[in-house]
Amino acid sequence: NAGVTQTPKFRVLKTGQSMTLLCAQDMNHEYMYWYRQDPGMGLRLIHYSVGEGTTAKGEVPDGYNVSRLKKQNFLLGLESAAPSQTSVYFCASRTSGPYEQYFGPGTRLTVT
Amino acid sequence: AQTVTQSQPEMSVQEAETVTLSCTYDTSENNYYLFWYKQPPSRQMILVIRQEAYKQQNATENRFSVNFQKAAKSFSLKISDSQLGDTAMYFCAFMKAAGNKLTFGGGTRVLVKP
User: Fold this and answer.
1) Is A100 exposed, middle or buried (0-12, 13-18, 19+ CB in 10 A)?
2) What residues in B contact A44, CB-CB < 8 Å?
3) Count of A–B CB contacts within 8 Å?
4) Which of A17, A83, B39, B100 is most buried, most CB within 10 Å of its CB?
5) pLDDT tens digits along B58-88
6) Cβ–Cβ of B104/A43 closer than 8 Å?
């Protein structure tokens, strides 16, 4: 049972490049989330999903897209990276009850 | 929209002593859940403790306990017998009972000194 995994762990992009971050969970959780964490700040919700095939916007969705084609995977895409998207990105998942979110180890993204 | 405020950016405590972290929140909801998460230097987010708003009894998990004051919208975390491994960022978070999303505070950095 690996829990929540994120790929890659680190990435450096040039402005304008695109990339996809992959989140995978093996706990059969319905809900999945993408957050960003900037230095000295808490986590801010980018997008989330309440089940396979669904997505919804969070607090800071601009510049990101997501897809949940399979229940266990939640992809976060940056179509044209900007320096303002330099951050640490966390994925999380949880069951349908009001229970804790289980977090992945994070991806550190730098956009130059 | 809900907001969560942690007014202490950083705190230090001697090993074996007690430290209390404050958290206040703003909501019009009556049913909700509150959480404290720990983020050590490894960056992994770890749930420390959870409180259901409908429960009057304060939650306790080993050396961690909360003081939940619903009327005051306050949710403080007490770490007793602090250990070096408690050094981390601590985040307070809120979720509506019928909601899907966590709202996080800005965090408090705790440094445990030997």
Assistant:
1) buried
2) 104
3) 47
4) B39
5) 999 999 999 999 999 999 999 999 999 999 9
6) yes
